[in-house]
UniProtKB/TrEMBL annotation, chain A:
Keywords: Transferase. This is Probable glutathione S-transferase. The lineage of its organism: Eukaryota, Viridiplantae, Streptophyta, Embryophyta, Tracheophyta. Belongs to the GST superfamily. HSP26 family. Gene3D superfamilies: 1.20.1050.10, Glutaredoxin (3.40.30.10).
From TrEMBL, chain B:
It catalyses: RX + glutathione = an S-substituted glutathione + a halide anion + H(+). Belongs to the GST superfamily. Tau family. This is glutathione transferase. It is an enzyme of class 2 (transferase). It comes from Forsythia ovata. Residues 89-221 form the GST C-terminal domain. GO terms for biological process: toxin catabolic process.
């Protein structure tokens, strides 16, 4: 039976990219529907009426929303290349850090982008603290998942791409190879993985997008 | 068989702390309930949850597990006594996890916003948002329960625990704000479910009594106004 597998995403959403990574690692064929969030399709609104957001994975007509929920669904449905650890305690730790990444790390990195001067210095200090916590979780492993890419690598995957872009825009260093030897190595290993490498959105487009985001935020602050 | 050296760090008023306690009750796992002193954090809490320093924390043997819904999933995966808390079908599991995320990220903050709202108009608007959320959850209930008593079907499941832990807070908010949120007419299924959930054997001893919770809430409000 032909399986229907559709992914609603935007070209740049780091959350949608998680689902792309998981589907590619599992070797799954799927259809991509690119959304314009300023003009959401009727299908997206039908499949995710509550949050109206991407990503949404539709599997044989059933919609699954929220990127981390989708990752677990994919892992439970297709057993090849397991993403989550088998041990319940290791699983709980992976889920905890993924949640931390979304609740604390993501916004702390974002705050660096949208601030300047003293406020940015404080934002950088907070972001660095959060990044240190992440690095501690890697210990001496190649990936958070061990020898191969797993759930937590995918959950943190956005850092391997977006942080260097933000560093370029703002001409500062957040993940210094000296201060973050383990995390820096992970970022290279993750980014250069052949499956992951082919999925990154165009870098120049991302630079333009985040540059514009920063300028627009700073302008708003100035006019207040 | 998993070792049953289980501790829960928490406090009786906290809905989040209720969640792992209900899960352990479902599994008939004995645990030591270590109550934090309100207003201070024990060394054990700070050591077990250095990132957030929040309750609940479950300590199983030497291993700390944090974040209430993550603890509930852990409990379900370690013990197969009692009944399964998460559904077995991956899609049903995804639906349950989606709604639990919605409840924590959107619905409960909306409930808390009612008591913080200043002025009648703001209170009314906040209440309407919570009711709109309950209407969504009513629909989710109909789909998930498939005609049975709970979101989880015949027995209490993950989503029952995720939402049900807030029932006492909901009642207190209704009484203190003199408003109706869980309405028999607007959300008849949830209304019936609330009664069944609250009186379930795994729940009734850990759900705070409304009067006691209301007194606690009043103390909290007085403290926050004084500071």
């Amino acid at each position: 039976m032909a399986e229907e597998l559709k992914l609603f995403r935007t070209w740049s959403s780091p959350f949608a990219l998680r689902v792309v990574h998981a589907l590619k690692i599992k070797g799954l064929e799927y259809e991509t529907i690119f959304e314009d969030l300023s003009s959401k399709s009727a299908s997206l609104l039908q499949y995710n009426p509550v949050n109206k957001k991407v990503p949404v994975l539709v599997h044989n007509g059933k919609a699954i929303c929220e990127s981390l929920v989708i990752l677990e669904y994919i892992d439970e449905t297709w057993k090849q290349c397991p993403l989550l650890p088998r041990d319940p305690y290791e699983k709980a730790k992976a889920r905890f850090w993924a949640k931390f990444g979304d609740e604390k790390l993501f916004s702390s990195i974002g705050n660096v982008l949208i601030s300047q001067g003293k406020e940015q210095e404080e934002a950088i200090a907070a972001a660095v603290q959060n990044l240190k916590l992440i690095e501690e979780q890697l210990q001496e492993k190649k990936f958070f998942g061990g020898e191969t890419i797993g759930y937590l690598d995918i959950a943190f995957g956005w850092t391997a791409n977006l942080i260097s872009i933000l560093e370029e825009i703002m001409d500062l260093k957040l993940v210094d190879e000296e201060k973050f030897p383990v995390l820096s190595a992970w970022m290279h290993n993750f980014s250069d993985d052949p499956v992951i490498k082919q999925c990154w959105p165009p870098r120049d487009k991302l630079v333009v997008k985040f540059q514009a985001m920063r300028e627009s935020h700073l302008k708003t602050v100035l006019s207040q | 068989m998993a070792s049953e050296d289980v501790k829960i760090l928490g406090g009786w008023p906290s809905p989040y702390v209720m969640r792992p306690r209900i899960a352990l009750n479902i599994k008939s796992v004995n645990y030591e309930f270590l109550q934090e002193q309100f207003g201070s954090k024990s060394d054990l809490l700070l050591k077990s949850n250095p990132v957030y320093k929040k309750i609940p924390v479950m300590i199983h043997g030497e291993k700390p597990i944090c974040e209430s819904l993550i603890i509930v999933q852990y409990i379900d995966e370690v013990w197969d006594s009692g009944h399964s808390i998460l559904p077995s079908d991956p899609y049903d599991r995804a639906v349950a996890k989606f709604w639990a995320t919605y409840i924590d990220d959107k619905w409960f903050p909306g409930l808390r916003a009612i008591s913080r709202a200043e002025g009648e108009d703001a209170k009314k608007e906040a209440a309407e948002e919570v009711i709109a959320g309950l209407v969504l959850l009513e629909d989710a209930f109909i789909k998930c329960s498939k005609g049975k008593s709970f979101f989880g079907g015949e027995k209490i499941g993950y989503l029952d625990i995720a939402l049900g832990c807030f029932l006492a807070s909901l009642t207190v908010t209704e009484k203190m704000g003199n408003i109706k949120l869980l309405d028999e007419n607007k959300t008849p299924n949830l209304f019936k479910w609330a009664e069944k959930f609250s009186s379930d054997a795994a729940v009734k001893d850990v759900m705070p009594e409304t009067g006691k919770l209301m007194d606690f809430a009043k103390v909290l409000i007085a403290k926050s106004k004084a500071s």
